[in-house]
Design goal:
Blueprint lengths: L9 H8 L5 E5 L5 H14 L7 E5 L2 H15 L1 H5 L2 E4 H12 L10 E2 L2 H12 L4 H16 L4 H7 L3 H20 L1 E2 L3 H12 L1 H10 L2 E4 L7 H11 L5 E5 L14 H9 L4 E5 L1 E2 L4 H11 L11 E2 L8 E5 L2 H16 L10 E5 L5 H10 L4 E3 L9 H14 L4 H9 L7 H14 L3 H4 L11 H23 L3 H14 L2 H7 L4 H21 L4 E4 L2 E4 L5 H14 L9 E5 H4 L4 E6 L18 H15 L2 E10 L1 E4 L2 E4 L4 H6 L1 H4 L1 E2 L2 H19 L9
Parallel strand pairs: 1-7, 1-8, 2-3, 2-6, 4-5, 6-7, 9-10, 11-18, 11-21, 12-16, 12-17, 13-16, 17-18
Antiparallel strand pairs: 14-15, 19-20
């Protein structure tokens, strides 16, 4: 194991070896930041840190998994197994499972998903309007990410709507406490409040996690910054890795202010820029540098590449959205027609707003170009997966009323809405959960004997499954348990009876089988080989896995390696890359995006410019920028104005305008000529 690698450049080496205090690594797009983080982990181990004392925190499960795999390749499976490599939210779960009792939470608290939260807010606000509940949900989330509780939110409310939302928030907090449940934002805010207020707990965790690395630091919000400060304490042994030029999530609470605060609050901060890009060619990077150079700079940084200039950025003028989609099709066909191993998966079409995908999808279907839409329905959002997750959540926390209501009605077991309404009234009267209420001796006074019997049967089934899940460990045993449970509740029959199409039902059952395999694999007990040494992965019970399932699902990205073109919003494309990228609809009003009732403030324009920069730097070999002469706005067409970002790219100095249809015609003509030359001359007829 060595932290030094011949392929690390000088700046990367400096970042890896700085262990004497706080460090900020300004990692430009494609500059090898994950490599720096994993090699720094190896360097920390060399310096005497134990694996369990090192925490590496990022934002998505996918990024955490990649980091874990690369660390394992570098330091070996045994050491990597004890590293704390997780998302912010997974770390929050870890803290709350261990210390939640200090906040009045029991160990088996529930983590509510977005739908559960909306349902509780409808109840707390006395409305049946799901859109109103979603608006409350969004505002409450922003408040929590600023560290506000309902009392602070009401004090900071700017108008009557916000004051109403703050009062709904107070009733929402009361219900969460009663349900022994937390929402996604609580996984950050509650650990921070705990560490801030409880000196004993704070000291314990500062001594447990003695070095902290934070990836994508520019995406942190106010409460995540405070959590980081509480974890590192006065020792301030941390490395923050981020890029002020890629801060694009201000709309959901992320603040570039966190980058500005670091040198102010840590005067001995070592700032190391990573400027060598290992992804893109020179033309692409020069365009990116020209655009982002128009933003005020917190730290100086300019990307460069050793890959040479490559192809100039292509500016493609299109009559309208339909013409743009046709040109995207032609460009893909053209580049694939040039020979070489160019797959559909090598292409991405990126856009600012989701509605831009519709016309492109239509053109791709017409041209038989396979594609996927990033940000479509997640595997874990499917109804059948949510059904099974409700059961698992109920095993972990019997007081999880939203999970109870879904599990008791899926599959149907003769327990109707009236029975559940009466049970709810009884539970509310005695201030107990629905599950606890169904075993109450006095329940018979409120419900008919048959209804009570059905509820008792369900309760016994849950208790029996909970007992077996607690005592079943390892992947093979876990799979056998889960398959037996699905058979017991007739879930396959439930799916087929609920669908008119057998093909759809079979697809849903296939998803269930994937989910069973997914859980079983996490129960461990599998043999792995590390450097010729075979060892068994840590065995966990089904209940152990169920305890963490909500946060895993909330962050999961389940992507199969398919040979398809990616259609994605610019926001969803961050962290990804493709050999060939098309930026769609680079017009004023779209990018930068502006709605009629919003002013384009300097801060919003700067974030939109960073979004353009992110889009440009997703491309490795070729980049096409589409401009519409006319674009659709509502039901009308309006004149398309090229985005100001196009002039900022300075493509007139290094770029080229291109019509891919003409290029495709030339390629087809050349192919036809080659084919004609390959036909052998026919023999002269015998005379």
């Amino acid at each position: 194991m060595s932290a030094d690698a011949p392929s690390l450049n000088e700046a990367q080496m400096a970042a890896v070896h700085h262990l004497d205090g706080p460090c900020l690594v300004l990692a430009g797009a494609g500059s090898g930041k994950t490599r720096v983080i994993t090699h720094k982990i190896a360097r920390l181990l060399q310096a005497g840190y134990a694996p369990g004392q090192i925490a590496a925190i990022t934002f998505t499960n996918k990024a955490a998994q990649e980091m874990r795999e690369r660390a394992k390749d570098l330091i070996g499976g045994r050491a990597a197994k004890h590293l704390v490599i997780s998302t912010f939210h997974s770390l929050g779960v870890r803290l709350l499972r261990a210390e939640g009792a200090r906040l009045g939470l029991k160990e088996k608290f529930s983590i509510l998903d977005s739908d559960d939260v909306a349902g509780i807010l409808k109840d707390a606000g006395g409305t049946t309007d799901i859109n109103q509940a979603r608006r409350w949900q969004w505002t409450i989330s922003l408040w929590k990410n600023q560290g506000f509780d309902s009392e602070q939110a009401e004090a900071a409310a700017l108008d009557d709507d916000e004051r109403v939302t703050a009062r709904v928030m107070r009733r929402y907090e009361e219900r969460l406490a009663a349900y022994q449940a937390v929402d996604f934002d609580d996984l950050i805010s509650l650990p921070q409040k705990l560490l801030q207020r409880d000196e004993e707990c704070r000291t314990k965790w500062q001594n447990t996690l003695r070095y902290v690395l934070v990836d994508e630091y520019q995406d942190t919000n106010a409460i995540q910054y405070e959590l980081l400060k509480s974890l590192v304490g006065e020792r301030a042994m941390f490395t923050a890795v981020g890029d002020d030029d890629q801060s694009i999530y201000g709309w959901r609470g992320a603040t570039i202010e966190n980058l500005r605060r670091l040198p102010q609050e840590y005067p001995n901060l070592k700032v190391i820029p990573l400027e060598q890009n290992y992804r893109s060619t020179g033309y692409i990077l020069r365009a990116a540098n020209c655009v982002i150079g128009n933003n005020p700079k917190l730290f100086e940084k300019k990307l460069w590449s050793a890959f040479g200039d490559g192809e100039p950025v292509a500016l493609i003028e299109c009559d309208n959205e339909e013409h743009e989609a046709e040109r995207a099709v032609a460009r893909i066909q053209s580049l694939r027609g040039q020979g070489g191993e160019v797959g559909f998966k090598d292409f991405a079409v990126l856009y600012r707003a989701n509605h831009q995908a519709r016309v492109i999808e239509k053109a791709f279907r017409k041209a038989n170009i396979p594609y996927k839409v990033s940000g479509g329905q997640s595997f874990f959002e499917r109804a059948e997966i949510r059904d099974l997750c409700a059961w698992l959540r109920l095993l972990v926390n019997n007081d999880d009323d939203p999970a109870f209501l879904r599990a008791v009605t899926t599959p149907k077991r003769g327990i109707g809405h009236q029975t559940l309404a009466s049970l709810g009234e009884f539970a509310g009267k005695w201030k107990v959960s629905l599950f606890e209420a169904l075993f109450a001796e006095s329940l018979g006074a409120s419900l008919k004997a048959a209804a009570v019997a059905s509820l008792h049967e369900f309760g016994r089934a849950v208790n029996d499954l909970e007992y077996r899940a607690r005592h079943t460990t390892g992947s093979e045993e876990a799979k056998a348990l889960l398959m037996g449970w699905l058979k017991d509740i007739d879930y396959e029959k439930h799916l087929y009876e609920g669908e008119d199409s057998e093909k759809v039902a079979a697809g849903r059952w296939s998803n269930v089988m994937d989910f069973v395999d997914w859980i079983a694999k996490r129960c461990g007990g599998q043999l792995e080989n590390d450097g010729g040494v075979t060892f068994e992965t840590e065995r966990k019970s089904v209940l152990d896995v169920a305890q963490t399932i909500s946060v895993i699902i909330s962050l999961a990205e389940r992507g199969d390696e398919q040979d398809v073109v990616t259609l994605s919003t610019l926001h969803a494309s961050k962290g990804l890359e493709w050999p060939h990228v098309v930026l769609a609809g680079v017009n004023e009003g779209l990018l930068p995006f502006r709605s009629e009732d919003e002013d384009m403030t300097p801060q919003r324009l700067e974030e939109e410019r960073r979004l353009m920069y992110v889009g440009i730097t997703r491309a490795r070999r070729t980049l096409a920028v589409n401009v519409l002469r006319r674009r659709k706005k509502g039901r009308e067409f309006v004149q398309g104005v090229p985005s100001r970002f196009i002039a900022e790219m300075k493509l007139d100095e290094v770029g080229a305008k291109e019509d891919p249809r003409e290029k495709l015609k030339a390629l087809r003509a050349a192919a036809a000529a080659r084919a004609a030359q390959a036909v052998p001359p026919q023999a002269e007829p015998a005379g």
